[in-house]
Amino acid sequence: MTTQHHGRFSPTHWLRKAPVVDYRRFFTAAIRHPGTVGAATPTSNAVADSVGRVVPDRGEPVVVELGPGTGSLSVEIRKRLPAAGRHVGIELDERMVRHLRGRIPEMETVHGDARELRSTLPKLGIDSADVIVTSIPWSLLDENEQHDVLRQCRRSLAPDGVFTAMTYLPMRHSPGGRRFRARLEAGFGEVLTHITWRSVPPMLHYTCRHPIE
């Protein structure tokens, strides 16, 4: 994969544009659940735009978002999702759930845990998801948690579905980051990577297809 960087990017400029309310809600959640928040800041527009590209723009796709947080990714998903599509967000923090239900009422926001994905989706009448988007801190999860949640994600995907995950670029070299990459390569027939440089710090995206059992 070749990553290109177009134009100049100023972290200070991006930080000035980030909604203050998102920072306040985000850091409150990080304090309440430090082990479940996947990023140090709300997601940048550039990251959200990259994630939105995996969402089908026609038909009746089901998109499941694990850990939508302040909804930065959710907004971009909604922009691309066709009218007949379905968008479900599973969020652990109750305050974020209330925030999301007010900010993005079109998304079905569920108060739940990614570790209970397989039992949550049938309750919503969902057999499988066409896209699963995750913002959970994969590199911080222990070995058993990584294995369990990834297995549930694979089993929840449609045969031609897409699983996408993000991690800060420096974290790819951590023990948890290396273990996560190895699990993706063992669990999917195709694993593509992309780096969004217009993020502080840069974000590494994984786009995975063809789940293997």
UniProtKB/TrEMBL annotation:
Keywords: Methyltransferase, Transferase. GO terms for biological process: methylation. One of its GO terms (molecular function) is methyltransferase activity. InterPro entries: Methyltransf_25, SAM-dependent_MTases_sf. It holds the Pfam family Methyltransf_25. Residues 63-161 form the Methyltransferase domain. It comes from the Bacteria. The keyword rRNA-binding does not apply. This is Phospholipid N-methyltransferase. The lineage of its organism: Bacteria, Bacillati, Actinomycetota, Actinomycetes, Actinopolysporales.
